[in-house]
Amino acid sequence: MSVQERKERERAERERLIVATARELAEQQGWEAVTTRRLAERIEYSQPVLYSHFRGKREIIGAVALQGSTEMAAAVRAATATAVGPRARVHALARAYLDFAERNPAVYDAIFQLDGGLAYAQEDTPEPLKDAFAALLESLGEVAGNGIAPGLFTEVFWASLHGVATLTRSGRLPPGDTEARVELLVDRLPVD
Amino acid sequence: MSVQERKERERAERERLIVATARELAEQQGWEAVTTRRLAERIEYSQPVLYSHFRGKREIIGAVALQGSTEMAAAVRAATATAVGPRARVHALARAYLDFAERNPAVYDAIFQLDGGLAYAQEDTPEPLKDAFAALLESLGEVAGNGIAPGLFTEVFWASLHGVATLTRSGRLPPGDTEARVELLVDRLPVD
DNA sequence: GATTGGACCCTAGCACCGCTAGACAAGCGA
DNA sequence: TCGCTTGTCTAGCGGTGCTAGGGTCCAATC
């Protein structure tokens, strides 16, 4: 059995390598540069090996998205944990979210823009995605205000951050005023 | 001279045909189905003809974006014109914006998601794009509130709508609650 | 009206993409 | 030691955006 275990270990290790390499390449040169040929060359295997781990390129994107989602949830929780008071937590959350998006654009795209073949907002949504939303909900739910469902408020605040993140990065919003935009959102949307 | 004029007319007409066909194909089957081969076949010319009008596929997307941008500005102005009072105008604007995004997903993507080689938020930004932003500014600028620049407020409100539009369409926000989300934004962000 | 020049368009092909069939080698169990 | 399974690679399919080069047709000139 030991042989089989070793093989499984090595296989799992190679899968991690594929995902890490795809992510690295995407962050360095953008997702359009992540081709199966380049990816195979970087991990020093032939193309078909990729397909013994993933159904296709889409699933690789999905794997990066799940990994990134876990990290984002952690980043948001870490930022909100040290803040005192509901509004301060929301402010910290917003900064952390946009900071993550700016520092990890390719990962952010994998989670929120590209098609990674993942189910969103459903029962069979992968746990990391659910948990990332939960991380937002923890700080945003408490400032939804009367008559507004915490989930709905979280969705709207999240969507606003998403809009700022994506429009800024694509150059459709002038760069540099992000902090002012965050303050406007944090001032007006939440209710103590 | 008449011959040359006729040729120029025909050439302009063919260019319109290319843009219209690209748009139609994109709305029918998505932008990934808009290939230069299919596009050429539909307009009943060979591929290289496309390149005598546009530098490449990107520029065709850009042309669709400019056309759509003009339409969106008109749609927003039409919706806000009949509304009475600042908040009602904002509400009408939000509905019109999301309605346009939902009815013309491919055009919306050309304007706000894809790379059409256009300059945004700069001096040399094409007029239709500037005007679309101006259309938003006309109704949103008046509810920015004290100490908030109308442009900044418009950017933030727009980004929020953009987030709702894109996350909903990609299935990352559950469908159906759009009206509630709009009301939340319209209730909280503007200041009379 | 014939000739010539140039504008115009098409065929064919480049390098690349995601993905897969089938040959082949390596290593395990009998 | 042999047979077989498992795993990997080479090669190739149909597609992509884009372009070089040849041929055709038509307008202007003599």
What's the short story on this structure?
Chain A is mostly helical.
Provide structural commentary.
The structure is a homodimer of 192-residue chains. With 192 residues, chain A is mostly helical. Chain A is 71% helix and 0% strand. The first copy, chain A, folds into two domains: 1-53, Arc Repressor Mutant, subunit A (Orthogonal Bundle); 62-188, Tetracycline Repressor, domain 2 (Orthogonal Bundle), CATH 1.10.357.10. Chain A has helices at residues 2-29, 36-43, 47-51, 57-81, 86-103, 105-112, 127-140, 150-169, 178-188. The mean pLDDT of chain A is 96. Chain A binds a DNA duplex (30 and 30 nucleotides) through helix 3.
Question: Which strand-content bin applies to the residues of chain A?
Answer: under 5%
- Helices of chain A, by number, come to 9
Structural class estimated from helices and strands of chain A: mainly alpha
Largest interface: chains, residues each: A-B, 32 and 32 residues
Choose one word for the global shape of chain A. elongated
Reported CATH architecture of the largest domain in chain A: Orthogonal Bundle
CATH class category of the largest domain in chain A? Mainly Alpha
Radius of gyration of chain A: 19 Å
CATH superfamily of the largest domain in chain A: Tetracycline Repressor, domain 2
- Mind describing the biggest β-sheet of chain A? none
Mean pLDDT of chain A: 96
Helix content of chain A: over 70%
As residue ranges, the low-confidence spans of chain A are none
H and E order of chain A:
HHHHHHHHH
DNA-binding region (chains A, B): 35-54
Organism (chains A, B): Streptomyces qinglanensis
Domain HTH tetR-type (chains A, B): 12-72
Protein name (chains A, B): Transcriptional regulator, TetR family
